[in-house]
Design brief:
- The protein is built from nine helices and eight strands.
- About 40% of the residues are buried.
- The chain has about 260 residues and is of the alpha+beta class.
- The structure holds zinc ion.
- Zinc ion (ZN) binds next to loops.
Length: about 260
């Protein structure tokens, strides 16, 4: 059931409080948003601690980032939220934060693509690393643009992480998963290295994921089954595939017409 505007505003404030309590943001960092209907986004303001927001402080913006309601200014990082919504019509909410352990991986430029935890293989698959982009510029939204098509969580190099969800709580839980995954991976590395789950056992987990109807990636991701680890789940795969179809169609049409 679709949340109404009041519920969305309350959920964003609750998630803001949790993000701050968990030490995933410092001072005024981080931003949270959720779509309202087809036209609008409810989002957090800039210059405010996300731990102390009240529903009236949130803003309503359109999909071009124009403010349509509210007395504060939206975060300049609203661009990555808008990019995610444009790329993923199956997701309604975005959480962006700087949780210390996964941000450590982002600073070390190490993606979280280890096949080590069953629940991560089933839920997120892997968490890729988007190239560094200057915050608040289109460099950042460009850097996530392709990855977000096939993944519900992305590390932002030298910056933090962003997650998507069907609503704000869902996006928040994905951020919890990412930070938990990063923390466990770091401990395993310190204890002498990670032992990946074997490929046949990974396959079993992917089958379970399919049985549960869990889909990683949006409708434009044609290769979701491999989002757990290969690099082939990029948009480039889609365009090559589309090019091939176009070529074959042209040949068939030519033969039919001759
Ligand atoms: Zn940030």
């Amino acid at each position: 059931m679709e949340l109404n505007e009041k519920e969305i505003r309350e959920q964003i404030c609750e998630v803001g409080r949790r993000v701050w309590l968990k030490n995933w943001v410092a001072a005024n960092d981080g931003n949270i948003s959720m779509r309202l209907g087809d036209e609008f986004i409810i989002t957090t303001p800039t210059g405010v601690s996300k731990g102390f927001m009240t529903p009236d402080m949130l803003l309503k913006v359109d999909l071009d980032g124009n403010v349509r309601g509210g007395y504060l200014k939206p975060s300049s990082e609203i661009k990555i939220h808008i990019e995610a919504y444009k790329r993923r019509d199956d997701k309604r909410a975005v959480v962006h934060a700087h949780p210390p352990v996964c941000t450590g991986y982002a600073v070390a430029n190490i993606p979280l693509d280890f096949k080590t935890l069953p629940e991560i293989i089933i839920t997120l698959g892997r968490v890729p690393l988007a190239q560094y982009g200057t915050p608040s510029t289109t460099e950042l939204s460009d850097s996530i643009s392709e990855l977000i098509v096939c993944h519900d969580a992305v590390l932002l190099a030298n910056h933090g992480a962003m997650t998507l969800g069907k609503d704000v709580m869902d996006a928040y839980y994905n951020m919890e998963r990412v930070e938990h995954f990063a923390s466990i991976s770091l401990v395993a590395q310190q204890l002498g290295g990670m032992q990946p789950i074997s490929e046949p056992d990974v396959k079993k987990l992917e089958d379970i994921r399919e049985q549960f109807g869990i889909k990683i990636g949006g409708s434009a991701c044609i290769n979701c089954g491999v989002c757990t680890g290969t690099e082939s789940c990029q948009l480039s795969t889609k365009s090559e595939y589309e090019d091939l179809i176009e070529e074959v169609t042209k040949k068939i049409m030519k033969e039919l017409n001759s």
